[in-house]
Structure formats: C-alpha cells, structure tokens
Design goal:
Elements lengths: L3 H20 L1 E7 L5 E7 L4 E4 L3 E4 L6 E7 L2 E6 L2 E5 L5 E6 L5 E7 L2 E6 L4 E6 L5 E6 L16 H4 L1 E7 L4 E6 L5 E6 L4 E7 L7 E5 L2 E6 L4 E6 L4 E7 L6 E6 L2 E6 L4 E6 L5
Parallel strand pairs: 3-20
Antiparallel strand pairs: 1-2, 2-3, 4-23, 5-6, 6-7, 7-8, 9-10, 10-11, 11-12, 13-14, 14-15, 15-16, 17-18, 18-19, 19-20, 21-22, 22-23
Length: about 270
Amino acid sequence: MFSLRTLKMVPILLAATVFLLLQGSGQVSLKSKPGQEIYARATNQSNIIQVTAMEKIRLFQPGELISLCDLEGQMYGAGKGRVVALGEDGKITKSFVTSIDKPSISAHSAATLIIGDTGKKVLFLMNTESGKMSELLRLSSVRDSAQNQYPEASLLETGELMSVASNGHQVFVAIGAGYSSAIFKIDPATKQIVGRNWAPGADPTAMAFHEGGLYVLVGNGRQVRRFTESLERSLDRIDLPVSEAKGLAIRKDEIRILTDNATSVGRFRIPVSS
C-alpha cells in the first residue's frame, strides 16, 4: 500500500528522472543542404530521437501518392491505379498501371516491390523493370497452427489491411483494428503465421524493413517505432516534426516520408542502425 508520503515523493522522483535523462541526452547531427545542419535530440537511455526539421523534395505531380518506399537507392511511390519511380528532383521517371485503388508498397528483393491491395487484402509482387505483377498471397488463405496465441489470426479476416513490408522471404502485414491493431509475419510459401505482436499504435499505416529491423509509422503519421525481425518490440522511437505523414522509405541512415498532403517528400538523416 502506497503511503501519502510516498505519493508526495512521486513528482520529485519524476523530476529527478527527467533531469537524468536530459543529462544523458546528446545531439545527433543530421546533414541536409550545404551549410545547413538539422539536429535531432536523442536520449541514450531510451533511444528516442526527436526530429526537429527536415529537408523536402517537392513533387511535380503532388497529392496523388499515398505510399512510399525505397528499393536499392531508388524511390518509389504508389497511388490509385499506379506505381511510379521518383527522381531526387521529385519528377516521375517511370510509371506502371495497376488495378489497385489503395496500395501499400515496400521493398521485397532485387528489382521487386511488394504491393498490398488494402481493400481486397491481397499481396502482389511487381517487377520494377517491366511492371509485371504476380499474386503472392491472399490473407484469406493464411493458416495459424498455433493455439491460444495473441494477437489472434482472426484479425486477418476482421481487421483492415493497412500496410505491408518484406524481408525478402517472409512478409509483414499490419492489421488495423483499433486498440487491437496487430502485425503478423507470414511465410508465403506455407501460408503460415510465423510471428506476431500488437502494433505500437492503432494506425500502423506504413512499414519498412531495414537491416534486420521493422520500422512502423504510427500516431497519425507523427512517430516511427522499431521491431526486431522476429517482431519483438524495441524502445526505439523517432518523433517526427509533422503529422499525417504517409509512406516510409529507409535508405542507409536516411528516412523519407510523404508530407504536406503528399505534395512533398520529407527526408532526414538519423542513425537508424543504432
């Protein structure tokens, strides 16, 4: 039982904790335009990175994209009925027609994207040289051999497919179901669930797999959280200076998102591998 004396000490203990965290925090320099330094403040204890500003790439056909990814140093975007390759100047360099109204895209393997049809809950692979698509997996065909495991596989049927990612072999699907939102790791070859965890927020709208970690955009597009490849949740967190960001592209130590109502790509450098 807590005593009144103990309760009175809580604000003091919290203040002391905050002080120690601030003492242990440092600044990570984020390279941007020549002559410009963008800084993100990180605490060593919790690996929290706060991005204070970002460089932007203005898109020449704004507002049409809802998903973003990076594949082998090439930026790709997707919107209703198409997937496009984007240059560093924001211009479209290649365009492919699809039949998907609300796509989620991510890197899969060499010259191959994974595309989730979030409306029909079907995953496809797209060859980025030819634009040819092939069906990879229907969530309705996924089976769960585990007993009494949570989150339950029934969410694949009852929830909303929000985003997809891939490690080149297995796929990750984020299912929106309010406070029960979840992420599943699935082997397309066996159609079996091989990993699962609760999502870090109710709206896991974008994901990207990078160097053994799964990065998830949540919090109304304000925050990026990291999981291990086996879907163990880490304490790593990246707080963004914008809201309603879409898409998630990771290139070495740089993260990119769609921002400003998808009229720009925001980019900032952080030590994502740390």
